[in-house]
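Query structure, 362 tokens:
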């Protein structure tokens, strides 16, 4: 069995006991070294659980809607060939279902019957959906200005919804307080959520014929997606299924870009910023808890973190819709940043752009 390891003081904790942070308050990682036999995949169902051996979960039965194996769609952007990974096509309408499925599966295995989570919308919806399937009660804290579609969705899953006025950080604070008595099924804090997200990297490589792309471009806020991609590609490299890690290109809104600022200044930690409103609500995170890990991961892959303006996000949102790809504005930040990246790099690169949230959620 794997262990949880504190990223601050390196204390180890057994996997058999529910836990979301270290006694010292530090963030946890997990010692699990994922691997699967790719020759055995042929006979398996087309969902994220085909890589089961790489996913740390102790129960026999998992909480799953057979989600995953989303299309890797070959298309163009700025007249260049790119692949869009359609991760907005999940049961709850966003890429958060990968982490939700694994984390709630383990909550079920631990016998937990009530969890709390906070989110700008999509993680809350994913946790609420899997809790509904698992018959686990959940309390979801969201900022009061969260889109009404996401709020209705979370409520309709049967979650108790708590709207918190003020900035996103207030919502996180309220949830952490509630987490003193309930299990915190946090997509940011819980390493199992990020472990579930790894399957996105596995799918991309399998869909490219066990080849890594040269770059993976994706929006980044708390970095649960970006770190999941990183952990997944690291697993694939350890398994010798790929030779090189793809450059991870994180995209932030210029109105909330603590990681991009830190990256540009060669800092190890996110830099404090003054956050302004952005239509990319899903990545409007001023102080990402795993910021240090995100910056290190991007550097290790030779990647970068770019920013996009509100105008660029808005026009990218329309461009995507006119290709038939109806994503939410947060997700459109990805292709907006990809346009910048493409203009700086040569033509024969294999570029994958992750599309993260469904447009109907706006
Ligand atoms: C969660 C999410 C992301 C990525 O956010 P991280 O906090 O960096 O994991 C991107 N797009 C959408 C639509 C999301 O819901
Ligand atoms: Zn610790």
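Result returned for the query:
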């Amino acid at each position: 069995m794997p262990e949880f390891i504190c990223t601050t003081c390196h204390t180890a904790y057994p996997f058999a006991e529910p836990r979301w942070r270290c006694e010292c308050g530090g963030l946890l990682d997990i010692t699990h070294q994922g691997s699967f036999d790719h020759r055995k995949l042929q006979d398996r169902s087309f969902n994220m659980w085909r890589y089961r051996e790489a996913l740390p979960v102790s129960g026999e039965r998992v909480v799953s809607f057979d989600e995953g194996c989303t299309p890797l769609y070959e298309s163009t952007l700025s007249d260049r060939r790119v692949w869009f990974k359609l991760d907005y096509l999940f049961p709850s309408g966003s890429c958060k279902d990968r982490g939700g499925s694994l984390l709630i599966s383990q909550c079920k295995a631990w016998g937990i019957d009530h969890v709390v989570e906070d989110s700008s919308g999509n993680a809350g919806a994913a946790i609420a959906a899997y809790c509904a399937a698992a018959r686990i009660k959940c309390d979801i804290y969201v900022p009061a200005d969260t889109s009404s579609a996401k709020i209705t969705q979370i409520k309709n899953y049967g979650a108790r919804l708590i709207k918190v006025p003020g900035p996103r950080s207030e919502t996180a604070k309220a949830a952490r307080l509630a987490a003193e008595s309930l299990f915190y099924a946090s997509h940011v804090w819980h390493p199992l959520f990020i472990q579930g997200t790894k399957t996105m990297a596995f799918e991309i490589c399998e869909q490219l014929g066990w080849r890594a792309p040269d770059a993976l471009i994706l929006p980044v806020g708390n970095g649960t997606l970006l770190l999941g991609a990183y952990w997944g590609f690291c697993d694939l490299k350890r398994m010798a299924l790929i030779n090189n890690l793809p450059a991870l290109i994180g995209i932030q809104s210029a109105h909330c870009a603590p990681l991009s600022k830190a990256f540009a200044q060669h800092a190890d930690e996110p830099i404090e910023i003054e956050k302004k409103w952005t239509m990319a609500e899903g990545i409007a995170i001023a102080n990402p808890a795993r910021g240090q890990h995100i910056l290190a991961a991007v550097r290790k892959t030779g990647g970068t973190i770019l920013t996009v303006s509100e105008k660029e996000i808005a026009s990218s949102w329309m461009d995507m819709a006119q290709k038939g790809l109806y994503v939410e504005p947060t997700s459109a930040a990805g292709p907006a940043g990809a346009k910048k990246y493409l203009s700086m790099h040569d033509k024969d690169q294999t570029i994958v752009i992750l599309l993260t949230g469904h447009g109907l959620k706006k």
